[in-house]
UniProtKB/TrEMBL annotation:
GO terms for biological process: phosphorelay signal transduction system; regulation of DNA-templated transcription. It comes from Marinobacter vinifirmus. Residues 145-374 form the Sigma-54 factor interaction domain. GO terms for molecular function: ATP binding; sequence-specific DNA binding. This is PEP-CTERM-box response regulator transcription factor. Gene3D superfamilies: 1.10.8.60, 3.40.50.2300, Homeodomain-like, P-loop containing nucleotide triphosphate hydrolases. InterPro entries: AAA+_ATPase, AAA_lid_NorR, CheY-like_superfamily, Homeodomain-like_sf, HTH_Fis, P-loop_NTPase, PEP-CTERM_resp_reg, Sig_transdc_resp-reg_receiver. SUPFAM superfamilies: CheY-like, Homeodomain-like, P-loop containing nucleoside triphosphate hydrolases. Residues 3-121 form the Response regulatory domain. Keywords: ATP-binding, Nucleotide-binding, Phosphoprotein, Transcription, Transcription regulation. The modification 4-aspartylphosphate is found at D51.
Amino acid sequence: MKRLLIVEDDPGLQSQMRWCFSDQIEVSVAADRDSALAALRRMEPQVITLDLGLPPDAGGASEGFALLEEILRLAPMTKVIVVTGREDKENAVKAIGMGASDFYQKPLDADILTFVVNRAFRLAELEQENRELIGQTNGASIKGIVAASPEMMEICRTIEKVAPTDVTTLITGETGTGKELLARALHDLSHRTDQPFAAINCAAIPENLLESELFGFEKGSFTGATQAKKGKIESANGGTLFLDEIGDMPMALQAKLLRFLQERVVDRVGSVKPVPVDVRVVCATHRNVQELITQGEFREDLYYRISEITLDVPALRERDGDALVIAQSLLKSLGKQLDRQNLSFSEDAVQAITSYAWPGNVREMINKVKRAIIMADGKRVSAGDLQLSTGEGEPVNQLNLRQVREQAEKQAIRQALHCTSFNMSQASRLLGVTRPTLYNLTDKYRIETSAESPAS
Ligand SMILES: Nc1ncnc2c1ncn2[C@@H]1O[C@H](COP(=O)(O)OP(=O)(O)OP(=O)(O)O)[C@@H](O)[C@H]1O
């Protein structure tokens, strides 16, 4: 059923708008922020029309913007159409920038309003279908990337599309989220795969050495330069150059890098003869580049050059289901390396892995799992071995009770399956449901029912 929420404080307009929609659409009306949020939680509308001028700031737009932000935080998939006055173009543009999907200008025109709302419903429907399709494809198909979440599936699919092209790609995300791994995947899946992949960490090399590391130098160009040396860019010729922590590159070098990206020639330090180089450039940073630009620490023109495509890698805690599949995969691979095979996680470990926030992401997980493999007594790895507490996760920022219940159900099912080594009969007994019910639930939540890691 299509569900529309109209947020409008003018009773006359409320009823006029209501009349525009057929019986096929369930319409609710809210006149202020609190009742709009209550309706959002209760009915989960796919589309909301939002008058920006709400009380107590009916003449301005501050209350409308605050509500828009809150709606998109709680239910980011909602299509919000902002309603503004005829002269209010600036606010409409600002709202679109914040994530509203469309805008509509008063006075009311029933035909245009129905058209805009129907278009938003269609968009919501297509996005939902797309999410379902992504959910049906199992696991990440890219070698070395373990993932189960729709977020990472989408990233893998983008990587597959982008890899064969030469577009300069910027990968952003917290430390340890797998940015370098994805950069390597871009290289491996490209026609450059047999050529070099040269990586350089711009934050790890002192400023005065970075230039010669990147661009190389000629013999005698500075004290100690007893012979000429190729830089990283040249050594990546034919292949891929990975510039890690690009946000930390000093301003002076940013200018030189920009010149290289525009002209595709390298000027070695101390040389007057530019060398042509053919590389595909992939950059990564954990820093907020927009902020760096505002603070004058990063060149805006360079940003546009390096971000022809941007991949935002979500933190591990934001990826539904990834923590457990990655932990399982690490237990297997690191267990083999450390000669402690056939280990499994205990129930409290599974619980702790799914509820911990993983601030250091996969890198932190690698350290914790490695430690746990060494510390575990017997065949079971406990939450204590992982140095994790077994406290319950707080259901913060959840939309409503249904969402909290679904998260809890998914977590309990995954836990039961892992604890019983994917024996459906035992898992269903553990959960107090019948086997068919468990199958229905694993289908509903698209939970893996075999021990096979969904991707590797
Ligand atoms: N989805 C994943 N599946 C398997 N291993 C992963 C995954 N994501 C990250 N890793 C592993 O975690 C470690 C950290 O990943 P990586 O170095 O790519 O992160 P990063 O985002 O580049 O980190 P930093 O910003 O600190 O450089 C690597 O050993 C990588 O192989």
